[in-house]
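PROTEIN ENTRY
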Amino acid sequence: GDDRLSALTDDLLLLILRRMDTRPALATAALSKRWTGLPRGLDSLNFRVSEILPPRYYRCIRIHSEANYGFIINFRVLCANIRRYERRAMRSMVASINNFLDSNADNDHGHGGQGPRRVRTLRLEFFATPCSSSINRFIAKAVDVWGVEDLEVSAKATYFQQGAHSFPCHGLGNDPHKSRLRSLKLAACYIPPLQGFHSLTSLVLQDLPDSTPTAAYVAVFTLSPQLQALHLKSCDLNQGVVAVNAP
C-alpha cells in the first residue's frame, strides 16, 4: 500500500516527466500536492498535434490514400471525419496551451511567489489553421519572459489543404534585444522579422511557402549578421535568385 512513486526525490521524478509527452506530464500536477510543483521544473516543452490525433485518424488517411475513390461508398463521410479529427486535435492543443499560459500568469508577473518559469527548449507542431493568436501568444511569452534558447515552430498542412503560419508584425517577441534565443527552426512558416536577436546563431528554414519573396531570404543575411549556421531545406526559390555576399 505504499506510494513508492511519490516517495522518489524531485530529481528522479523530473527525469520521468522529461521522458513523457508534455501534455500528460503537465497533467500529473493534478495527482496530489506532492506533484503540484513538479511540472514547473520542466525546462523543455513539446506541444505536438500529432500526439493528440487518434489512431482512427490515421486509418481514415490510409483508406483515403489507398482506395479507389469510385469504390468508397461513404467518401464524403470519410473526408468529413478526417477534417473533424484535425479540428478536434487543434482545439484540444489550443486549450492546453491557453490553460498552461493562464496557470503561469501569476508567476510571470511576480505574484506567484516562485518567480517566472524558465524554459530552455520549446517545440511546437500544429496544423496551419486559424489558431495563430494562441500559438503566437505562447511563442512571445517563451521568448520575452521565459528566456527560451532553442525554439522550433512547425506548421503542418491539413490533409486536404496546404497552409503556412504567419507571425504578427512585431515578430517572435516584443523585445528581441533582451532575448536569449540562440537557435531557431521554422517549418512551413513565413519568415518573421529577425533583427535584434543578437544571440541567434543557428537558423533552419524548412518547407517555406512558395510565395516567400526573395527579399525575405536576403534579409536573413543582412539583418542577422551574427548567424553562424543557416540551413535551407526544401525551400523553393520561385521568386528569383538569392545572391549571398558574406564572409
Remarks:
- DSSP finds eight helices and six strands in the chain.
- Residues 48 and 125 are 5 Å apart (CA to CA).
- The helical segments are 10-17, 22-27, 33-36, 55-66, 75-103, 105-108, 132-144, 214-223.
- The longest strand covers residues 121-127.
